[in-house]
Write a structure and sequence with these properties.
With about 280 residues, this protein is mainly β. It has no helices and 26 strands. The strands form seven sheets. The chain has a four-stranded antiparallel beta sheet with strand order 1-26-25-24, with no helix packed on it. The radius of gyration is 17 Å and the shape is globular. It binds magnesium ion.
Amino acid sequence: IYSSTVEQVATGFRWAEGPVYFPKGGYLLFSDIPNNRIMKFDEATGKTTVYRDKANYANGNARDRQGRLVTCEHSVTRRVTRTEHNGKITVLADSFEGKRLNAPNDIVVKSDDTIWFTDPEYGLKTNPETKRKEGKEQPGNFVYRHDPRTGRTTAVARDFDQPNGLAFSPDERRLYVADSGKPRHIRVFDVAADGTLAGGTVFCAIDKGGPDGIRVDATGRVWSSTGDGVQVFGTDGRRVGRILLPEAAANLCFGGEDGRTLFMTARTSLYSVRTAVGGAGR
Ligand code: MG
């Protein structure tokens, strides 16, 4: 029997999103989108400070194999960036086939260093700086794969309503992608060695709100943020657990010294809970 208590570790945000844990340093970064900043929660001190102001409405974040931060900036700049060890920001992708991206939302890095991200429309509404409506240039809302070696960005799935969170299975042969638009479900794809996808059937549906951020644990289970917290699904797509939160969750990630703390960004707060397993691909 394993039981654990949910803890509110920080609060005072407007829309917390995109958590990513850095084992080297023992801290979590996450976005506070409407406040246009990235926050840093330091585990040792328990303090939360501003990591980056004027963050171009950063949304999803991830860590690459070299320990660098990669970020989806979902409004104004509408691009995917990498923060180098010296703090310099490199733009990885801001367009596809000569047209601007919509609003990069969430991101994951594969062990071959390729960067996979989703591009729904959520950030396109009104430019918070110019107060003007942002124009959509892409013909759809795609899932992309970016190869930092060649600089090439490829669309790997084009049939989503609003693609959102994405995560690989522990062996990286499967890719799960949430659709938080009309379908409100998670789909599963087979990942080929050349980086193309096949399949794409519905893996599970979310019964409270929609799926936003998702993560896979070391045993292959899929953890999804939902309207009532977090729901956990077995590899067969059947729901095996729920974590209820006082606020709707937008995203989650595994972290902590042993990788078995689950951090959940939910509206105004950051929550954590100890878990029996850690994340995949740690
Ligand atoms: Mg998202």
